[in-house]
Amino acid sequence: MDDQITGSTAAEIADSVRGLRERGTLRPGDALPPVRELAVRLGINRNTAVAAYRQLAGAGLVISRGRAGTLIAGAESVAQEGLADTVLHDIASGNPDPSLIPDPTPALSRIVGRPVLYGEPVIDAALEAWTREWMHADLHRDDLTICVTSGAVDAVERLLAQALMRDDAVALEDPCFLASIHTVRLGGYRAVPVPVDDEGMTVEGLRAALDAGVRAIISTPRAQNPTGVTLTSERAAALREVLADHPYVLIIEDDHFSLLSPHAYATLIGPQHRRYALVRSVSKFLGPDMCLALAATDPTTAERLALRLSPGTTWVSHLLQRLAHAQLTDASARTQISTASAHYAERNAAFAAALETHGISTSSVDGLSLWVRLAAPARTTAERLMRRGWLARTGDEFCIDESSPASHHLRLTVHDLSDADAARLIDDLVAAQR
Predict the structure, then answer these.
(1) Which of 64, 103, 235, 376 is at 20 to 30 A from 397, Cα to Cα?
(2) How far apart are CA 154 and CA 149, in angstroms?
(3) For residues 170 and 117, what is the distance between their CA atoms, to the nearest angstrom?
(4) Which residue range or ranges hold the HTH gntR-type domain (predicted)?
């Protein structure tokens, strides 16, 4: 196979590999020759071989495994959030409790109005005014501009696309939210992992990522998924100090748990930072099917983002925007959101306390799930739990570098378990550790 790869330019080499893949000579999982070896054999500069592999990676035809080499990509499925089609008791979904999502029926009659036509403002005026007040209370920036997108993932994808080119580096928390990992990979960007500890993104990790040339940072200020960690004010101040010398690096804060979090919002966005976006989805408290997120950005980012949100197929329905505004300003709906916040905190805290009595700890302080530390490898424990009727999610799925050592964490969604089921799960988890 090595002898069949030909070409003297990056484009020719990439086209040669693509042809071998299409003819079946190269199959998913096959390793390409190391860059240095290929360069020597073809008599080309090493940088030309590197550029060819980057083209292939950007097109999704190969996967870089670092020291493990470059492999031909397959059509294998990737981990996704949500319910699984299974007979097992699903504690892996990461879903909110549907009974705690406000019923939109009372608000529907209040949102009917004249039709919105092409060329009108993309964001509903009432929702924009409410959001500006909400965001300004936390960011204290007079330059912020409000945008609306079809959910947080859509916002992140568009924000990266307006600021980056293929192969640009993006700093991601490690372990990381699944959708952020997929968005960065599918966009052709390079993920640079920044470790997360009990206070949030580490200062040393962020400094190393900036030294590596990242052009964007995706951070979760509250209820980081999967760890449940919330950024402390002390850590946020230390991170802002590091970022003070990098005002044009795009900071994207995904504050997905905003109204449900009992913790104060702390931010990486300093008062002089030039490129930023605070994104708040309504999915966790108004329901995933709302598919709506609000973003507060600097004017330049907002202008670029607007080009990707022009009226037409890319706008967010004004009926949906009016419905979100009607619920967000409704006293009974806000009371139910507060009830949901207390429910998640209380149920997770009770489960974590019960685990502690068995010597099993969790770093989670916020969110819909718990990040449980294990003595045994997570995959081994998950397999044993499966035999006992439980479907759990291992920490391996949230690792940015797939060649990382085996995870010793499970992410468990337990807030909707009855007391009896919670007790049974704890017993089974303890037994699976033996």
Answers:
(1) 235
(2) 6
(3) 37
(4) 7-75
Kindly tell me the sign of the dihedral angle through the C-alpha atoms of 32, 35, 41, 44.
positive
**Positive or negative CA dihedral for 88, 91, 92, 95?**
positive
Distance CA 370, CA 307 (A): 39
Largest Cα–Cα separation, the chain: 72
Distance from chain centroid for Cα 410: 17
Name which of 176, 82, 142, 134 is nearest 391 in CA terms: 82
- Looking at residue 229, what DSSP letter applies? -
The two structure tokens encoding residue 413: 């969604």
Strands (E), 291-424: 293-297, 370-373, 390-391, 393-394, 409-412
Separation between Cα atoms, residue 114 and residue 405, nearest integer Å: 57
CA angle 134, 249, 294 (to 5 degrees): 25
> Could you report the per-residue pLDDT of 88-127, keeping only the tens digit for each?
999 999 999 999 999 999 999 888 888 888 888 889 999 9
**Which domains are assigned to the chain?**
2-72 (1.10.10.10), 89-98+333-433 (3.90.1150.10), 116-329 (3.40.640.10)
Cα–Cα distance for residue pair 126/118, rounded to 1 Å: 19
Sequence-separated (6 or more) residues with CB below 8 Å from residue 362: 228, 352, 355, 370, 371, 372, 373
Q: Go through 400-417 and write b for each residue having 16 or more CB atoms within 10 A of its CB, e for each that does not.
A: beeeeeebbbbbbbbbbb
Summarised one tens digit per residue, pLDDT across range 376-425 is 999 999 999 999 999 999 999 999 876 678 999 999 999 999 999 999 99
CA distance 408 to 379: 8
- Identify the three-state secondary structure at position 1: coil
